[in-house]
Specification:
Blueprint (H helix, E strand, L loop, with lengths): L2 H7 L7 H5 L23 H14 L2 H4 L3 E8 L17 H12 L8 E8 L5 E3 L10 E14 L4 E14 L18 E9 L1 H4 L9 H21 L14 E3 L1 H7 L2
Length: 259
């Protein structure tokens, strides 16, 4: 059975962690993407990440293909069962671009996306690559906070909060995809690994990706229940009580849905 079939075959699980937390405190307000008119030039470790961020906000799949090395890997958060089908068959550059294409342009099993807003740290701090055997001259590491909002055509909003750890490599030491036609260049940087750390933000163990249709049905049922309760009581339900907060997921869960 292929990875894609495994992901789609998993039983639906209710992941309304954000909804459960919303009873005690309001969800984070809407976010705004950085104002960047054109694609950043990845001539530093920080700008390689800024180009990644820009591609998500602009949903630019063509430029996104120039962000990663040929040996790129995405690593699911430890404990995130959305990554189980990928443990022995990891997310390569090819798989990453397929997932991104479904998110940015359309396709896959997820509902069509109409808006993506990604905000990383305003100041990106660069450290030597902590992986064994990596020379800090060519290899760097950046840990950044993540605030990602994805809205679909049916007005469902997914929210990803937490951290992401990126490992970047200088162009004269990178395995550059031949299809890009780019030579080794010490003034250009690429991402060769991306570790998802957004599971820490929602705590516990995240179950495998539920079917997006089931989650939307659960949200609709919540609205109906609140509306019915309002009609049966003497006091009307305040409008705020009918507002369903975003579904808080890990970045890995979102990507697995759109594979």
């Amino acid at each position: 059975m292929t990875i894609r079939r495994l992901v789609r075959a998993w039983p639906a699980a209710l992941l309304l962690l954000g909804f459960a937390g919303g009873c005690s405190k309001p969800f984070r307000p809407a976010i705004s993407p950085p104002s960047v008119a054109s694609a950043p030039t990845p001539d530093s470790p920080q700008d390689a990440i800024r180009l990644f961020e820009w591609c998500w906000n602009e949903r630019d799949i063509a430029t996104y293909g120039r962000v990663f090395t040929d040996d790129f890997r995405f690593i699911f958060a430890l404990g995130d069962s959305a990554g189980n089908p990928f443990r022995d068959d990891p997310v390569t550059r090819e798989v990453e671009l397929a997932m991104a294409r479904h998110l940015f342009v359309g396709g896959g099993s997820g509902w069509p996306v109409i808006s993506i807003v990604l905000v990383l740290d305003p100041t990106l701090r660069v450290s030597p690559d902590s992986r064994p055997g990596k020379n800090a001259k060519w290899h760097k590491e950046i840990l950044t906070s993540v605030d990602l909002a994805v809205t679909t055509e049916d007005s469902t909003e997914y929210r990803i909060l937490g951290n992401a750890r990126f490992f970047v490599v200088r162009g004269d030491s990178a395995l550059i995809p031949q299809e890009l036609g780019l030579a080794a260049d010490s003034t250009r940087w690429y991402i060769d690994r991306w570790d998802d750390e957004t599971l820490q933000r929602i705590g516990g163990t995240a179950h495998g990706p539920a079917d997006p249709g089931d989650l939307r049905a659960d949200r609709a049922l919540g609205r109906l229940t609140a509306s019915t309760a309002g009609r049966s009581s003497r006091r009307p339900v305040a409008p705020a009580a009918l507002v369903v907060p975003p579904l808080q997921l890990t970045w890995g869960q979102l990507k697995a849905w759109y594979w």
